[in-house]
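Morning. Coffee machine broken again, so started the prediction first thing and wrote up yesterday's gels while waiting. Chain of 1011 residues, entered below exactly as on the submission form.
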Amino acid sequence: MTLKLTLTTYILLCATLTWGQLSSFKPNQPLDNVSILQWTNKEGLPSNNTNSVFQDSEGLIWITSYNGFMIYDGERIESYDKNRLAFLNNDGFYAIAQDHNGIIYIASNGDGIVKYENGIFSSYEPRGAAVPGSVRRLYVASDSSIYIGANHAGLFRVEDDSLYKVAGDLFNHAMVRTITEDAGKNIWFGTEGGGLNRVGPAGPLHLSLSDGLLSNNVLSLLSNDNKLYIGTAKGLQILDAEQNMDLQVVAVLEDHYINSLLMDDWGNLWLGSEGGLARWNPANNLIEWLYSKHNIDLVRVNHLLLDEENQIWLSSNRSGLIQIKASKVFNLSEPRLSSTRANIIHESWDGKYYIGTDANKIDVYDGQNLSTLLVKTNLNGNGIRDIYHDEDGSFWLATYIGIIHIKGDQEKVYSELNGMPADDFRTILKDSKGNFWFTTRSGGLVKFKDEEILRVYSNGNGLESNFVLAAEESANGDIYVGTFSGGLTIIEPNGDCKTYHVSSDDSGLVIFNVDFDSENSAFVTANSGLLYFDGKNLERVKLQTDRRSNTFFDLVIDDYENFWLTTNLGVLQIKKSNWEKYKSGEVDHLSYFTIDRSSGMNTEECTGATRSTKLSDGNICVPTLGGVVFIDPPSFQRDVYVPKVKIRQMIADDEVINIQEGNINVEPGTSRYRFDFCVLSFSSPDRNQFRYILEGYDKGWSVPTYEGTVQYTNLSPGDYTFRVIGTNDSHVWNEEGDSLFFTVHPFYYETTWFLVLCILIVLFTIFLFFTWRVAFINNQNKELRKVNAELDRFVYSASHEMRSPLSSILGLINVASLDNTSNKEEYLAYIKHSVERLDALLQDIVDHSKNARTELEIAPLDLQHEIAEVIEDLTYSENFSKIKSTVECKGEGVIHSDVNRLKIVLNNLITNAFKHHAPDDVADPFVKVAIHQTDTGVRLIISDNGPGIEPEEQDKIFNMFYRATHKSEGTGLGLYIVKEIINNLNGFIEVQSQVGKGTTFVIELTDLKNT
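Came back before lunch.
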C-alpha cells in the first residue's frame, strides 16, 4: 500500500539528505527532477553571456561577463564596468578567486587583475613582473600563493605579493584555460592548444595528443582522491595517480566539449558543456543530460559552482545565470498522465492511486507503472471531479453530467433525468454509516444510499446556499458542509442543521474544503484564507504577509500535525509549533514555508477548489495544473540552516560610505541615510525577510519585511547602531544578524562645548547686564542725588538771587516814595539794573531747562560766522572798545551740532571774556578766539589777558550759582550751563588761568553728523 520503489526510494533519500546534510542532488533522483531559476538581462544582468560564477566567504555570488562583473546578494545585482570603475579600460572579465585573507581577485580581458579589499576596487600591481593584460584563470593554492593563467602569456605565480613567471619556454605563449592542485601540492594547468601541464614537487610534466590526451584543448580540471579529471574539447579523461598515471577515457562523454567540472558529496561528477548539463556516476558509468527545463536552455555552460546551500549555479554564454536545486517533491505528469490538469487523487483499499483529470478516463498508479480505466460515458470535456472506489470494486465518479457509478462493464448516471437536483457534482463522501453525500454547484447536497435519494439539503432546507463545494465527516459523525455565500453548515446525525458565519454578511465567501485535527477542531479553507472552527465560532486565521496574493484551496494535516495548505502559488507548510504559538496568542500571525517551482514542483498552481490527500504512508498528494505532486513531510525539516545576514552598503545623501573602514563618520548637514542589506540565502531569495532597528532612533524592531533597504532622514547628531536580522524561506531567523556603528557629527553650534559656551555667554551677559543695571541704577541714583542737590541749591540760590533784585526794587520804591527831592531818575536807573539782573537770571534758568529737557537738533554750523555775530553784539558793551578781538580759524570751521545750544556756549564764554576783562590794568588787552579742525570735530580756544582766576577757584567756576568774586554781577549759572551743554554735545571743556595774566577756555567739540 505504498508507492513502490520509485516514490519510496525518493522519500528515503529525501530524509537522508535532510538529516545527513549531504549534497541535495541524490544519485537516484532523476536529473530532470530539479527546480530551476534563471537570471538574465531582464533581472538586472548587463548581458546573458556570462563566463563564471563564484561565491565568496561571506556568501555573496559574483558573476563575470564580457560586459563587466556583478555581485548578487539575493536582493539586488550590482554591476561594475569601466563606467563605474575609472581605472578600467575594458569590460571583459573571466574568473574570480579569493585568497586566505579574504581578498578577492578578478581576472580581466585587458586590465590585468582587479583587486577588491576592504570595500575598495583597485588595479592589482604586485612587485616584480607586470601582470599580463589578459588573464583567463586564477587559482589560490594551499600555500596561499596565487596562480595566474594568462591569454597567450603562460602561467604566473604570486608569492608574498611578488609576481614570478613560471619557468618553461613551452608556456611563454600558452593560453591557460584551467588550473587546479592535487593532493601532492602539484599545480596542473590546461591550455588551449598546448595540452596538460604540471609543475611542483613531483616535477614538470607535459601531456598532449601524443601521450594519449583526447585533445590539446584542455578546458577544465578537477582533482579528487588521487585522480585528475580532465575536461577537453573532445571529452572527459581521468589521470589516475594510483594506476601509474594512466589516462582513461570516459566513453559515454567522448566528443563533448567540457568547459567545467564539479563533484558533489555523493561522488557524482557534474559537467558543464557546450550542449548542456550532464551528471556522470562513476560507480555505474551512467550519464544523464539536462538540456532545458521550463523553457530555460542549458547550453554553452561555461562554469559550475556548488554553493553553501548545496545548490548548483551555472554560467552560460546564452542563458545568463542559472541555479538548479534538487527537487523535494515527486512530480507525476504528462506524458505518463492522461492530462496535466489533475483534479483528484483517491487512495484505494487496493493500494493503488486513482487519479481524476480533465481527460475522459481514470489514471491508475501503483508506485511504478501507470495504467488507465476508460470511462464510457461522455463527460463533454469536463473531466472527473472526484473518485470513490467502493469495497465492492465499483467506482463512483463526480462529474458535471451527474454521478457516474461504474460496476464492472456497466455505467449508470444519476442526474436530473432520474431525480437528482442538479447535474454539476463536485465531491463524493461516504460516511461511517455507509451513506453517500454528493455536493453540487447548483442543487445543494444530496444524501444517497442503496440507489435512493434519502434527502436533499438546499437553500431554505437546512442550507443557506445551493452552491456546495465541501462535505466532510467529523469524528462524532457530524457532516460539515462548505458553501458559496452560505457559510459553514453542520448536519448532525439526527438531521438537525446549524449554520455558522464569519461575519454578518458572508456573500462572496467560498468554502472549498474542511479538515480536522486530532482534537476534532475544524480548519476551513476559503477563498478569503484559512478559517478555524472550535465548535462555537468560525474565525479567520491571520497568516504572515506575503508580497504575492494567494488563493487558498485545501488544507491537509500530516502525521506530525503540520498543516499543508494548497494555493494558486504553491503549497504552504505551517508547522504545528507555529500553530500552537498562534493559538495561545504568543504570536499574532502564522508563518509558513512555500513549496513551489523553486522546490521542484513542475507547476506551482494547484487545481482550484479540489481536494488534496494525505496518503496512508504519511505523504501528501496534491493535484495541480501540471500533474500530481507527492510531498514527503520529513524532507522539509529545514531548521538546520541559519542563513547569513549582511549589511551591504550605507548611502548618505547619495554618497556611498565605505562601511568596511571601521569608524564611520557622517558629516554635518546630511539629511538622508539609506541602508541596503540582504539575507545570503539563495534557495528562494524573493522570500527572504528582514527586521531592523536603528539604535539611538527607533524605539523597537521593525515588523518583518521583504524589502532589503530602508531610509532614514534628518538624524540628530550622535552615535547610532543599525542592526538587521533575517530569515530565508524556512523562517529560521539569524538573530545575531549584522550591525553597523556610525556617528553623525554636529555643526559647531550643535556641539556640547558650543552649548556650554552659549550658556556661559548668556550667564556672562546676564552678569554684565546685572552689573550694568546696578551701575546704571547707581548712576541714576547719583544723578538723582545730584539733581536733588542741584535742585535744592537751585531753589535756594535762585530764590536768593531773585529775592535780592526784588528787595532792591522794593527798597528803592519805598525810598523814592519818601524822597521829595528830584532823584527820580537815579532811582529808576537802580530799579532798571535790578530788573536786568532778574531778567538775566530768568534767561539762564530757561537756557538750563532747554538743555536738560529738549532733544538735540543737529545741523551744520559755521563757527566763524556764529563767533562774529557774538562779537558784533558786544560792540557797544563797556570794555569792547578797549579790547582787541581776533578770530583765527584753521580748517573749514564747520561742525554738525545743536546750533542753539552751541550759540549759548559761545555767547557765555566770549561775553565773559570781554565783561570780566580789566583793560585798563594791562597793556594791549585782547580776547582771542581760535578754531582748529580735528579728526573728530573742532577744538575751540577762547583766551584773554584779563585778571585771571585764583587757582583754588578754578575747580568751582562750573558749579551752579558760583561767582568767583563779590564784584561779579552774573547769575552764577552761565558756566554751569556751558559745561552741561558741552557734556550733552559729547564735548569737553577745561580752563587754564593765571592771576594777572589771563584765562583760556579749551573746548573739544564732536562732530555729530552721523548720530
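The CA atoms of residues 492 and 989 lie 123 Å apart. Going to sketch it on the whiteboard this afternoon.
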